[in-house]
Amino acid sequence: MSRLEEAEIFVHVVKAGSFTAAAAELAVTKSHVSKQISRLEERLDTRLLQRSTRQLALTEPGQAYYERCAEALAAVTDAEDAATALQGRPQGTLRVTVPASFGSRYLEPLLADFQTEHPQLLLDVLFADRFVDIMAEGYDVALRWGVLPDSSLVARKICSALLVVCGSPEYLAAHGEPRAPEDLGEHSCLRYAYNPEHDKWRLHGPAGEVAVAVSGRLRANSGHHLVVAACHGLGLAFVPEFHAADALRDGKLRRVLPQWGDEKQLWALFPHARHLAVKVRAFVDFMAERLRSPEWCRWRGA
């Protein structure tokens, strides 16, 4: 086995976090991966990974080896993409990360259509709500909701969505409807765990921005679950409309404080220094076009 192949297996193991997951990604057996890592450590005469029954951890030499191998493999990918870019059509592998619940609800059919349009492209998609460092983890493009931090990444706006406060008719009949943002403090509020201010809702309206302290019996890292809980009368949710659109249209939820809410944007993020213009541009252009008039906006006219 060549040194480049050894490096590729090692990088896959580190990124996947286990021999089993890396073997699945590479379509080889776990024993093959384990054997190659052992041979690599023997050849280098150093321990690269600390193994336990639950996890793998990089040793100091392993961290140094991993960083350089990841850079080298990225350079090889860049070289391949630069060579195929002259042909003017997307080829090779496009590694994409998208939000999990939003992606499964709205992006899965678009991803399938995109791949149908580009049969020579291998699409590798990660559905995850966690923050993904696309540079460190080797992704070509990320679709991400929210305010963008300062970074070296290129950002292109794809679309936007409202954040709305909503509750079930049953909950509102039992507990009353808030008439002003300050009234939210008297209600059971269903909170999003990944919000760094999960005990505070920031709403924008006629008086500008208002920050309201909220509390309740449920906090979850899934906007979809918050909508389900709201439909069951457990409280008020402050969620993106793409999670609540079906329930709002069907009358299972009703928007409250209609003059108050927020807006968030979906961005496509990708690195500056990669020769990925053809396949990345094709993907970003496709998503921008298909999400120009997103279906989750239709509830507004219901």
Major β-sheet annotation: 9 strands, mixed
What is the helix fraction of residues, given as a range? Answer: 40-55%
CATH architecture of the largest domain: 3-Layer(aba) Sandwich
| Strand elements, count | 13
Number of helices: 10
**In the residues, how many domains can be counted?**
2
Task: List low-confidence stretches.
Answer: none
Describe the structure in your own words.
The chain has 302 residues and is of the alpha/beta class. It folds into 2 domains: 3-83, Winged helix-like DNA-binding domain superfamily/Winged helix DNA-binding domain (Arc Repressor Mutant, subunit A); 90-302, D-Maltodextrin-Binding Protein, domain 2, CATH 3.40.190. The protein has 10 helices and 13 strands. It has helices spanning 3-16, 19-26, 30-44, 60-85, 100-117, 134-137, 169-175, 223-231, 241-250, 277-290, and strands at 49-51, 56-58, 92-98, 121-127, 141-145, 154-167, 189-192, 200-205, 208-213, 219-220, 236-240, 254-256, 262-270. Strand 8 (200-205) and strand 9 (208-213) form a beta hairpin. The protein is elongated, with a radius of gyration of 23 Å. It starts with a helix and ends in a 12-residue tail after the last helix. The model has no long low-confidence stretch (mean pLDDT 88).
Brief rundown of the structure:
The protein is an alpha/beta fold.
Essential attributes:
elongated, 25% strand, two-stranded antiparallel sheet, single chain, Arc Repressor Mutant, subunit A, 10 helices, 2 domains, 302 residues, D-Maltodextrin-Binding Protein, domain 2, alpha/beta
